[in-house]
Write a structure and sequence with these properties.
Order of helices and strands: EEEHEEHEEHHEHEHEHEEHH
Radius of gyration: 18 Å
Distance between the termini: 31 Å
Strand order of the largest sheet: 6-9-10-3-11-12
Number of helices: 9
Largest sheet: 6 strands, mixed
Shape: globular
């Protein structure tokens, strides 16, 4: 069964420590949501797990099904089954969406097991239809000229085609109107299985109305300071984070300033 284990994970950027000891275990089929104020390390956690080079891991470990993620490169982490839907997807001129997706799928499948062009086109078109995407987007350069909502749908399209073991969704709801949010959430829910897990990073409970989490965690000061079920997200939505700060003796000055 799929298992992502994060233990004592610490990371810094330019000498400033952001993650200060993250402990989290995600089993197959589980959906975990991480919430928290701005600047507490939520996006840093996703970037570190995926291997962004600007972050330095200073302590701890992270493994996926026994594979030490911190000891392998980004492409190897992807082949191991980790996927990141980015908060700010990059635009790549000269590479069409279809070419990028097919290359990514075949890299994941490995040499000798590549997907034929016809099968790829059929699969891509079916997934785009699920996400209510214009078929013309397959032939446009990757994310170039896409709206914020179109970029987010494209991230979910990538996830649906790559079929990862663990999908990290970094503020996938940012900038989406209610219709686009519903479509994106439907795409995520369609991918939920007993083996596939999700780590959802979000500021708002509204996404969790559509994607029901099993566990909700609140991050402050680079740590997961409170965990619970879906009711925790509802309480945060209704009351904010001040009650958690009061419980833990955290002041606004100590919450943090870097994501």
């Amino acid at each position: 069964m799929t298992k992502l284990i994060i233990n004592g994970l610490k990371a810094s950027i330019e000498g400033k420590q952001i993650l200060k000891g993250i402990n989290l275990e995600i089993n197959g089929g589980e959906v975990h949501a991480v919430m928290g104020p701005n600047g507490t390390g939520k996006s840093t956690l996703s970037s570190v797990l995926m291997g962004h080079p600007k972050y330095d891991v200073t302590d701890g470990f992270a493994s996926l099904d026994g594979v030490d993620l911190l000891e392998i490169d980004v492409d190897e982490r992807a082949r191991a089954g980790l996927f990141l839907a980015m908060q700010y997807p990059s635009e790549i001129t000269g590479v069409t969406n279809a070419d990028f997706l097919r290359s990514a799928m075949n890299a994941r499948r490995g040499e000798g097991n590549e997907l034929s062009l016809i099968k790829f086109i059929r699969l891509m078109e079916a997934r785009m239809k699920n996400l209510e995407m214009n078929p013309e987007f397959a032939h446009r350069y990757l994310n170039e000229g896409f709206s914020g909502g179109e970029k987010k749908r494209n991230e979910i399209l990538q996830m649906m085609l790559l079929e990862p073991k663990v999908a990290i969704l970094d503020e996938i709801d940012s900038g989406l109107d209610i219709d686009a949010l519903r479509i994106v959430a439907d795409g995520v829910n369609a991918m939920r299985t007993e083996e596939r897990s999700f780590l959802i990073i979000t500021h708002y409970q509204r996404l969790l109305t559509y994607i029901k989490p099993d566990y909700v965690h609140v991050m402050m000061q680079g740590r997961l300071v409170k965990s619970g079920g879906p009711e925790l997200a509802h309480k945060v939505e209704a009351e904010g984070y001040d009650w958690i700060k009061e419980e833990l003796g955290i002041t606004d000055e100590t919450v943090g300033q870097v994501e």
